[in-house]
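During the no-cost extension, the postdoctoral fellow (Dr. R.K.) reprocessed legacy sequence entries with the updated structure-token encoder. One reprocessed record is reproduced below for audit purposes.
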Amino acid sequence: MKTTPTLFLLTVLLAFPSGCKTSLPTDSTSVKSPWNSFSEAKSSYDQIVPHQTTEVDLKKLGYDPFVNPGIKMLNCLDVMQRFVPNNSVRMEMVATEVRKLIETREGYSAYELDLNYTKSERCGNALADALSFSRKTKEPGWNFRAIIVTNNNVVVYKIWSGQPCIERYEDKARPLGPLQTLDDIRPPIPI
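Re-encoded structure tokens follow.
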């Protein structure tokens, strides 16, 4: 008869292990694109050569706004917001080809690539997480952004930015567990 509590405790411990990639939920967020990693996106970007690469070449590299949802076609106002965001940035500070696009607007096109990938993994003790005592979340990921300017169907300017490695951690501790979450479900008091 004494083995019943021990067997129950062992079952509970095995059912709710601790650590990542157990019975805890995971989420991922990304934009559909031909690139699955920062290095793939950067490698494709590096193949773009100003004054040589054409818009047809861009499409072959995956920079087609009609196929790739991560590519945005920019108008002149969008370009101004990206390169001249406020009065402290003077037009003389902007790259020559971008300045020409803003001033003339004829024959120019601009594209923006914005890729983000994040995966949310809950870590820690599944029982403590399920009862809201402790929730630990790890969010690895990466992002890559690029702006490409073309004139008469040839790339004349490009610039990129990004984070090859993102690691975010969130740790929520609620000493009262599920009792602390009750204030989230009570109806508001009318005034």
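The chain is about 30% helix and 35% strand. The longest helix spans residues 3-15. The remaining legacy entries will be reprocessed before the final report is submitted.
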